Amino acid sequence: MTSRPLECSQCKKTVKVCYKEIIRDSITCTDMCADCPILENKLHGNASQEKTTEKQKTLCCGNCGTSLESIKMGECVGCRDCYEIFADPLTSELIQTEAIPPALIKSLGTKSSTPLHAGRAPNTPADITLSTRLSSLNEALNEALKKENYEQAAYLRDQIKALEGKNHDS
Amino acid sequence: MIPEEKLPPSLLKNTVWGQSPNPIWIASTLQLKRNLARYKFPHKLPVKELGNIRTLLSEVVNKEAELNSPLSFPLENCDAWDKEFFFEHFLCLENFPTNASAAECIIDTSGKILCTLNFQNHLHLHILDTACSLEESWGKLSKIENQLASKLEFAFCPKFGYLSSKPAEAGTSLFACCHLHLPALIHSQQLNELLLKQKEEEISVRGLEGVIDDPIGDILLIKNRYSLGLSEDAIIHSLMTVVMRLMGAEKNLRTQLKDKDPLEFKDKVSRAYGLLIHSQQLQTKEALNALSLLNLGVDLGWVSGITSSQIHTLSFQTRRGHLIRLIQEKNPDINELGPKRAIFLHEALKSVQLHV
What is the rounded CA–CA span in Å between residue B356 and residue B22? Predict the structure, then answer.
């Protein structure tokens, strides 16, 4: 029976290189494919990272000329194409600067394709009714009752009654 | 300065804060930011192209049926005082640009809707709500936006939503803000504790000038922190939840103060009364702070001769842009505003009496 060829620890491609690192008495062997970024890093060190950074620095929008670097420095985006071209770095920047709700950041994970927009699409009507206000009032009322804050609860209950009366009339 | 006869009368007569039926929740604003799909964003465009965009947008917006006889004010024809007046009236959160090319304000005659062209984005739609009815105002604003969207193509993508010049303002690109008057909570130092306990991640709280530590006029701005990652419904729901809680807490505390009759608060109200009635010059901040305490005094039965709504109106009018229009100063000297503000308030408060 033929044995299964060894796989790169990163991408499961066939192993082409065995990288052996000897530091003092410690020997580390890593099996990698020829394209493995870890191999690139080990052979060329920070130069490869700098190359990537340099590449990122010069990355510009073809439509308006806005550079990725300027966006990372907090400058405005120049056009709609910027959002497409810089989608991933923009997403990372928005996560880093906490411009997205924490709950969404947790659910994003490594799924860069997850939409950040949760609202309505163009030409769809708004759908907010008095029920939103009622729901908010009820939430606040339940909290007030939990804390035995009866005067606050009475005030909120009056607001609810007034709103229900208004709803009934309309 | 734009002559009075060229402004919608509602801007001069109807002071926003004084119209609310609720003495605590005094006003709200909703704003949508939009860009045209086929053009670069304003800061990337040459003046000529900005002018073309202004013409295009102005034509479409001025014909919008939901806007009642709108009036256009090119920003190059507005001086700093006009911009300050509009900024104050519409409770804007961002200053008007000083050097924007081909920028314009379009205001409808109700004085509640403001459309700005070529500010940071091609179009900002801004609505004032003075009836504690955020849902209805949102319904109206989104109707206007839908009507405009049927004639103009807005920059949108499924991943980032409505595309804004600032990526953090993309998504719904909806910014809602409620103005709450909370003197009892602030002066009893219970506000910070309350905010810490009831922390909603999606909501931010600040004062009129940005800082929450020393809120001017005891007015807090409750606004949504995110426009990305949340639906319009979720934004308004979160906002309403926090507003209702704070309103309930403020109302509760005012009732307690009425029953307990604390000397500390009587002293604060008395000092505020003295400052307003007798000072020879007043800066905006000290006037707003004093008026806030006087307003609390009205609610607690310690001050008569004026209503809460009238005091909110005065607070609105005493700010610089409005005061200059009211006293009809054509070439205002900022150094003389302090004494003129004091005279204005003396006259407005002459029938007020303190019962402490």
Answer: 25
Average pLDDT, rounded, for chain B: 91
The residues facing A17 across adjacent strands are: A32
For B260, which DSSP code? H
Residue of B nearest to A150 (CA): B252
Tokens representing B107?
A: 């205001």
Is the pLDDT at B212 greater than 80? The verdict is: no
Distance CA B80, CA A147 (A): 49
B-chain residues within 8 Å CB-CB of A117?
157-162, 170-172, 228-229
Only one residue has tokens 């004010």, namely B73
**Is the Cβ of B146 closer than 8 Å to some Cβ of chain A?**
yes
- Give the pLDDT confidence score for residue A55 in this predicted structure: 53
CA distance linking residue B141 with residue B126, whole number of Å: 8
Q: Where are the alpha helices (DSSP H) in chain B?
A: 9-13, 47-62, 80-89, 134-151, 183-187, 191-197, 232-260, 263-278, 284-299, 308-317, 320-326, 334-348
Please report the pLDDT score of residue A1 as a whole number: 39
Is residue B173 within 8 A of residue B32, CB to CB? The reply is yes
Give dist(CA A69, CA A77) in Å, integer: 11
Shortest CA distance to A108 belongs to which of A92, A128, A132, A127? A92
Q: A141 vs A81, which has greater pLDDT? A: A81
Cα distance between residue B341 and residue B322, in whole Å: 11
E-strand stretches of B123-207: 123-129, 156-157, 161-162, 174-181, 203-207
Kindly tell me if the per-residue pLDDT of A50 is higher than 80: no
Average pLDDT estimate for B145-152: 93
pLDDT mean over B63-92: 91
Contact B75, B96 (CB under 8 A): yes
Q: How many CB atoms lie within 10 A of CB B141?
A: 24
Cβ distance of B135 and A104 shorter than 8 Å: no
Q: Give the global pTM.
A: 0.82
